[in-house]
């Protein structure tokens, strides 16, 4: 049997779709959570007649990365337990940039989801929902105040609960380095992050270029090694998007 | 505009297609080229109330990995210069397992391509061509003889030249840790590897599960970090395959 239907779909993508890279560069300059060391790159082999090899020393949550459920709640799935069919998902992008421009401590709420659904239809089951905030364009993403409290937007627990329970999403993603709004992470802890991972969802942090993706109709490809027992890894996220 | 045509394609995949994982586990036990050290995994954070992080020290060519063109020929593209549209490609699998079972030093030739095309049609431009040998199922993939020469199958240069020039492939992949047949790698050097990378193609080594993928009609997703200036990285390769 020679079933080339999928190749025909692929050919159609060349005309009507575009690729958007949602991942940051992987280098010592890449933004990462403030408590981690910079990655180290060595060159163990570099022969003039060819054979050039790098060696990396890097934490599992570096740059644009995936958090497996076990990153916080003990006993939840490790990275190798996320299945291939969870690595390509319908992508919904919910843009709250205007609200964040008015209030950097903005907490993403259930109403933001309902407003989005009124325009674009219900979030399909098994989706990847990304929160677009414009935060990735800031140089200072931590935005510490004089008391050492971070100020950036994030997910509220009611919204995460709605996505996990009512919409049965597979994953969420965002531009800052934390799931929770900075002020909540600094005062109450990583409560939203714990909650969403405890639902066996995964998440992607430090995403970029969400403003190049339409609200509906794209697919996200989340690529990462099958790292045994791992709480996460740097992830390469690509979106295949309808041209608008 | 709400263009959900791609989501409809995605829904169709759930019924008529299957996912096959073409990448090995990423762990210290993972096979890798004989000249590289094992990877090291540390656990810098593991708090009982949650926050579990790994730290990896690993060469760029570890387990199932992508080689960027610059891995051998100087001045060729680094990993970050491989574009998103090169990371999802039509996958052609050419099975030479029977020939390898008769002769472990088998050199993949132009005739193997022509025989395959007679059955399945011409390899489309911009494809990923994988050589299926069954070699990934062997425990001893190096297969050294008493003189320190490795014996395993590989690509012949005329076949690589045909794929690059006549079929304009984007990438090739194989199960052993080298492009060249072991006997050629050990006596003449990595001549085929140098050749195919010098064409600005990339390659994936140490692939598995190619026997679960049909000869034509699948797509391969090759996921890896956008590692700046890098000659390669561990890659997660998934195939979306028509159910047979």
Summarize the structure.
Chain A has 244 residues and is of the alpha/beta class. Chain A has six helices and 13 strands. In chain A, the strands form three sheets. A nine-stranded mixed beta sheet of chain A has the order 1-13-11-5-7-9-10-4-12. Chain A has a two-stranded antiparallel sheet with strand order 2-3. In chain A, strands 6-8 form a two-stranded parallel sheet.
Secondary structure blueprint with pairings:
2 copies of one chain form a homodimer.
Chain A: H1 5-16, E1 17-21, E2 40-46, E3 52-59, E4 65-67, E5 88-95, H2 97-102, E6 107-108, H3 110-120, E7 128-132, E8 154-155, H4 157-166, E9 171-174, H5 182-187, H6 191-198, E10 202-205, E11 218-223, E12 232-234, E13 236-242
Parallel strand pairs in A: 5-7, 6-8, 7-9, 9-10
Antiparallel strand pairs in A: 1-13, 2-3, 4-10, 4-12, 5-11, 11-13
Helix pairs in contact in A: 3-4, 4-6
Structure description:
The structure is a homodimer of 244-residue chains. In chain A, the strands form 3 sheets. Chain A has a 9-stranded mixed β-sheet. Chain A has a two-stranded antiparallel sheet with strand order 2-3. With 244 residues, chain A is an alpha/beta fold. The longest helix of chain A is centred in the first third of the chain and has 12 residues, at 5-16. Chain A has helices spanning 5-16, 97-102, 110-120, 157-166, 182-187, 191-198; strands at 17-21, 40-46, 52-59, 65-67, 88-95, 107-108, 128-132, 154-155, 171-174, 202-205, 218-223, 232-234, 236-242. The first copy, chain A, is built from 6 helices and 13 strands. At the A-B interface, helix 1, strand 1, strand 3, strand 11 and strand 12 of A face helix 1, strand 1, strand 3, strand 11 and strand 12 of B.
